[in-house]
Amino acid sequence: MITNSPLQTDLYQLTMAAAYWQAATAEQESVFHLFFRRLPFKGGYAIAAGLEPALEWLESFRFGTAELDYLAGLKTKAATPLFKEEFLGYLGDLRLKLDIDAVPEGELVFAHEPVLRVQGPILHAQLAETALLNILNFQTLVATKAARVCHAAARSPVVEFGYRRAQGPDGGYSASRAAWIGGCTGTSNVLAGQRFGIPVLGTHAHSWVMSFDDELEAFERYAEAMPDNSTLLVDTYDTLKGVDHAITVARKLREKGHELNGIRLDSGDLAWLSQQARAKLDAAGFPDVKVVASNDLDEHIIESLRHQGARIDTWGVGTNLVTAADQPALGGVYKLAALRKADGSWQPRIKLSEQTAKSSIPGRLQVRRFESEGMLVGDAIYDVDRSISGEVEIVDPSDPIRRKKIAAGTVYKDVLQPAMKAGARVFAPEPLAAARERCQAALAKLHPGILRLANPHSYPAGLEQGLYQERERLLASFR
Amino acid sequence: MITNSPLQTDLYQLTMAAAYWQAATAEQESVFHLFFRRLPFKGGYAIAAGLEPALEWLESFRFGTAELDYLAGLKTKAATPLFKEEFLGYLGDLRLKLDIDAVPEGELVFAHEPVLRVQGPILHAQLAETALLNILNFQTLVATKAARVCHAAARSPVVEFGYRRAQGPDGGYSASRAAWIGGCTGTSNVLAGQRFGIPVLGTHAHSWVMSFDDELEAFERYAEAMPDNSTLLVDTYDTLKGVDHAITVARKLREKGHELNGIRLDSGDLAWLSQQARAKLDAAGFPDVKVVASNDLDEHIIESLRHQGARIDTWGVGTNLVTAADQPALGGVYKLAALRKADGSWQPRIKLSEQTAKSSIPGRLQVRRFESEGMLVGDAIYDVDRSISGEVEIVDPSDPIRRKKIAAGTVYKDVLQPAMKAGARVFAPEPLAAARERCQAALAKLHPGILRLANPHSYPAGLEQGLYQERERLLASFR
């Protein structure tokens, strides 16, 4: 595992930096947006996450001797040095002087909206690209997945259990963080508990049971060691016999003034087994012993189990959550959108694509989010250098026929908030719980049809009309 | 990003550890195997990877004050301390004393075969479980994916470009490492280049072109800065015009004694565009300028493009490789397989499952790999405490009708190699290139039908007959 390094980047960012430096355009003031073109999981929304670790990376950015020595040793195919010594000297002195405006962690974000607006010297913005994408793409993906899983579980707690199959040590660590922002109740990942204050939870493994000659003995020994914290895994051999053994232990614990926390099911027909287990526990006088279920769960299986009448109190979700298994990458991009001219004004820039919808959005962008009667009614992406007021018309860039008018005077907020000015933080790191609460509050303002897992309503998020026209004009100028 | 910590684990490993300690079974000598039940990607093989970082984690294992203080603060639902002070004292003194036998990195591994055999006090083995799974699952997955992608590309180089969409900082870093073991030629990830000595490669981005008023000017400036290292991205506006601009620059470079390295295509119909680009480059006298292609490639798209006659020299593969997008988790497990009895003999242990094939394999396992005329002919998983000699019969645990006999005297090697004894390394870290070469050598010994991407032949890997019978006997004893 690794600590922050400016070498967390693609080589081409460094060769481009060398070329900007040589072309004397390194200080050219630029604006980039980090955004994605499609909502993940065919869902109706996404939850922004990863800003704080991204800011930490930006703050830590510094080429030390080891990094510069490594770069000095790189050669071209012609065996010439890849980087000039003077350029490496320049890198050694470089501190990133970027302005960052960002969607706060836990906040809703939709397709085409900037998750981040990065403004500053083009060389600086370019050197930050890869790390920003890496951090924000993944955490936004997992926070969104977690929100979906928690939505499927309705009010029941969801515990993230994914570390063992996460994509590397930090894949697990970042995922635990993002999953908590998205609504999970806790994690099994102890490091994430220590570093982020996320509640840590757990039961025991099959190996505990297998290490004794007999399941009942294994349960008794575990309960002796953890009298106030026992959730017994009942499916090592025969699940319903396991429930009986757990009830025997629950009685013994109660005699000593303790209560069994729960049992865990990790295989078989979770709907039927949970009903049987619940009935046994209730009949034995343990209505408060929780039934925890795990085993390759995701939002769709949880929804199905609930529809089947499963009696599951807590859901342990691992692999499918932390790897976002049905879509393991967000596909966020980082596109140049404006350059400052000598006269101080901004010149919009656009990347063409054969599909108009895939072309980038020019300008210096902000997102205005409108609200009516406590519910969100639409987002307008607009250019901060153009005035926007009165009635606002929102145009879907993927389908310009789809438009929505927002009446003048509708309540709104601008979603992107200043996070860094010239490389210095604008605010102190917030507690992670603040991001989690922001997420809950935001989701509560979305129409249930947008929250739906399959074929959700499409939230009206698009370009403010004037920006839409400006983009069309630029696109036409290339044809 | 984070550095190695003993808290990279699931909470239940620590509560089980507390329970083993309290039950006075912490020192019970045990054997666990780390294995997976199905080959990833519906493929015919897997490539083991991740051993070296796993050994580094094991070596670094130590609870410091910060970790112990955190654990001391954890409470049960009844507000009692989760861990006893004496137990935390024990943890503070704990050093892992495990014997590790492992499949070397880059070596082939098949379903049910141990990637790792872990032997030692059960408490130690349990505290290592989560981190070992996390590291080996992911790197084995990506090394296997890389081998598939490189197979699809035949002899053309594949460069791993995935950092920006990898699962977190370390997800990218680990993936670059594993992808190189699996056969990639290089990576765009500069940190992986620095730390592992992997060749770093790159071109430039669309933003470089967009930062100038004109594509030709952008190419010229880049070539001036990188005369011996220019691969020009030609699709920012109009791809074939971009190729013409690149040719103009190639001529200017040649006048100055340099050669253009290549052009890159990142969108559109890569088969057709690569043919057009090749024709233009050849006609202009640049047959050695390479055509690099990228854009959501994977092994299937590469195979299809080659079948379509695409003229692509180098493949840049990102997201689908580093996230192993079609199967983003390997599903490796870590199962108790034997306990040492007071008399020193080993008692096999088994985890049942409703499906026999999902039940674990008891014993202390090794894999014997047989070879005939330079090709691999079969793997027999056997128990090191049972003799195996003469003719060996291999039984597929998923389908016991499928058996293969290996004649007495067939050449073989035992695949698991000692890596740690009582917590100390048996060998010094090997250069990563050694793992990559091992992978190439191993793949060369597989029948082409097993290497095939879709519906490959199934390599005969299964249980040695005596072990198969012993497992059946144990399973029957539970019925």
From TrEMBL, chains A, B:
<dbReference type="GO" id="GO:0004516">
    <property type="term" value="F:nicotinate phosphoribosyltransferase activity"/>
</dbReference>
<comment type="pathway">
    <text>Cofactor biosynthesis; NAD(+) biosynthesis; nicotinate D-ribonucleotide from nicotinate: step 1/1.</text>
</comment>
<keyword id="KW-0808">Transferase</keyword>
<dbReference type="InterPro" id="IPR036068">
    <property type="entry name" value="Nicotinate_pribotase-like_C"/>
</dbReference>
<dbReference type="InterPro" id="IPR007229">
    <property type="entry name" value="Nic_PRibTrfase-Fam"/>
</dbReference>
<dbReference type="Pfam" id="PF17767">
    <property type="entry name" value="NAPRTase_N"/>
</dbReference>
<dbReference type="GO" id="GO:0016757">
    <property type="term" value="F:glycosyltransferase activity"/>
</dbReference>
<keyword id="KW-0436">Ligase</keyword>
<dbReference type="InterPro" id="IPR006405">
    <property type="entry name" value="Nic_PRibTrfase_pncB"/>
</dbReference>
<dbReference type="Pfam" id="PF17956">
    <property type="entry name" value="NAPRTase_C"/>
</dbReference>
<feature type="domain" description="Nicotinate phosphoribosyltransferase N-terminal">
    <location>
        <begin position="7"/>
        <end position="137"/>
    </location>
</feature>
<comment type="function">
    <text>Catalyzes the first step in the biosynthesis of NAD from nicotinic acid, the ATP-dependent synthesis of beta-nicotinate D-ribonucleotide from nicotinate and 5-phospho-D-ribose 1-phosphate.</text>
</comment>
<dbReference type="InterPro" id="IPR040727">
    <property type="entry name" value="NAPRTase_N"/>
</dbReference>
<dbReference type="InterPro" id="IPR041619">
    <property type="entry name" value="NAPRTase_C"/>
</dbReference>
<keyword id="KW-0662">Pyridine nucleotide biosynthesis</keyword>
<feature type="domain" description="Nicotinate/nicotinamide phosphoribosyltransferase">
    <location>
        <begin position="159"/>
        <end position="340"/>
    </location>
</feature>
<dbReference type="InterPro" id="IPR041525">
    <property type="entry name" value="N/Namide_PRibTrfase"/>
</dbReference>
<feature type="domain" description="Nicotinate phosphoribosyltransferase C-terminal">
    <location>
        <begin position="368"/>
        <end position="469"/>
    </location>
</feature>
<keyword id="KW-0328">Glycosyltransferase</keyword>
<dbReference type="InterPro" id="IPR013785">
    <property type="entry name" value="Aldolase_TIM"/>
</dbReference>
<keyword id="KW-0597">Phosphoprotein</keyword>
<protein>
    <recommendedName>
        <fullName>Nicotinate phosphoribosyltransferase</fullName>
        <ecNumber>6.3.4.21</ecNumber>
    </recommendedName>
</protein>
<comment type="similarity">
    <text>Belongs to the NAPRTase family.</text>
</comment>
<dbReference type="Pfam" id="PF04095">
    <property type="entry name" value="NAPRTase"/>
</dbReference>
